[in-house]
Amino acid sequence: MLLPLLLLPWAWGALAASPPVPTVSVTLRVLHIEVFHNASSMDMWGMALLGDLETHSLACSTCEIRFLQPWARQSLTPKEWQDLELVIHRSLSYFSRIVTRIVQQLGKSYPFVTQGSLGCELHPNGTSRRFYDGGVNGEDFISLDVDAGKWVARQGDNVSARYTRDLLNQDKGTVSQLQLLLSMTCVKLNKSFVQHGNESLARQERPVAVVFARAPPPAGPPAPVLLVCRVTGFYPRPIRVAWLQDGEEVVPGGRLNSSGILPNADLTYQLRSSLAVEPGAGHSYACRVQHSSLGGQSLLIPWEQSRPWGPGLAVGITLGVVAVAAVAVVLWRSRRRGYQDVRPGESRP
Predict the structure, then answer these.
(1) What is the residue-averaged pLDDT of the chain?
(2) d(Cα 240, Cα 229) in Å, to the nearest integer?
(3) What's the rounded Cα separation, in Å, for the pair 247 and 95?
């Protein structure tokens, strides 16, 4: 919710010359989560993200900054990183005192979780968007209007949010530091990270897509067939997946459904898009995938109606083939055993 000294200007502002402006919009974001078990026990985790690339991490057990990219150290000197770790220790103590005061004044109970997101989004034209948003137990709670220099309650009818807003707005020094941090230091760091990490940011992984159908259960009233387009292994995150019916894009509506973009373990992404269709309608369908790694082209994966089964039916067919093969082996062994029982010179009736 509030980590006012996480990146102090005197710790992170010592960048000599401002690096060039990125050619595309890039966001530098710090995320932090605190679990308050009671008035004297708190756990904290944090991470820094450049775009969707995790660059640094932090755990409150040691408050040691971990560098997750080979170029993540280059924007600051070793002494500046040490100073920053010390500042984080002090800010956590400050943050804990503020939260304890709010809990005592409002009679709140433990445990609870706070979350924060602060950073800056830099645009190619040189402008930037600065933000600091805080939440409690997964719900929006408070945010900083950087231009006005005031905290704003995200839940106007929430007594706790209004009290927190008024309390934080009394600390003019911290608000001024945050304004300077987000408006100057964050922007400079954003440019520097983009400059040093350009190769990692420019990584391109082509998507792999497959289309299959999930037929409705045999029992029950007639239901549409669900066509599924599974796209995986792509990077960066932005992607567009659409369904085509007879060559025309299907407009958004009740027939379409999407899983949203989800992460893979190998730092790529996946997505599933489904379309409900009436069987036997005589239309043709295809899934179209557009991604930056495709060089301006698109993946077009048609649905083969001659093979409308999905993975479940395909597994069933595979098991059936295995069963037939097993029966054949048993029969072959039985016949072979019968031939072996016949002695030389004897004949089987």
Answers:
(1) 81
(2) 12
(3) 57
Cβ burial, residue 308 (10 Å; 0-12/13-18/19+): middle
Distance CA 141, CA 266 (A): 33
The two three-digit tokens of residue 59, written as one number: 């755990």
Mean pLDDT of 178-194: 89
Phi, psi values for residue 157, rounded to 5°: -95, 10
How many angstroms separate the Cα of 195 from the Cα of each of 26, 119, 187, 199? 11, 17, 12, 9
Cα–Cα dist 203/106, whole Å: 49
Three-state secondary-structure class, residue 145 = strand
Q: What is the pLDDT of residue 22?
A: 63
CB–CB of 262/232 below 8 Å?
no
Provide the phi-psi class of 12: left if phi over 0, else alpha when psi is between -120 and 50, else beta: alpha
pLDDT average, residue stretch 317-322 = 40
Going by the DSSP 8-state scheme, the letter that residue 182 receives in this structure is I
Give the closest residue to 52 by CA, choosing from 192, 200, 186, 258: 200
What are the tokens at 317? 């067919």
CA distances to 74, 168, 175 from 4, rounded to whole Å, are 24, 10, 8
Cα 337 → chain centroid: 61
Rg (CA), the chain: 30
CB 182 within 8 A of CB 130: yes
- Measured on CA atoms in the order 98, 100, 105, 111, is the torsion positive or negative? positive
- The structural domains of the chain, ordered by start, are 9-201 (3.30.500.10), 208-302 (2.60.40.10)
User: To 10 degrees, what angle do helices 172-180 and 159-169 make?
Assistant: 80
Global pTM value:
0.70
| Contact (Cβ atoms closer than 8 angstroms) between residue 68 and residue 56 | yes
DSSP state of 205: B
Dist. CA 15–CA 63, nearest whole Å? 23
64, 53, 10: which is closest to 29 by C-alpha?
53
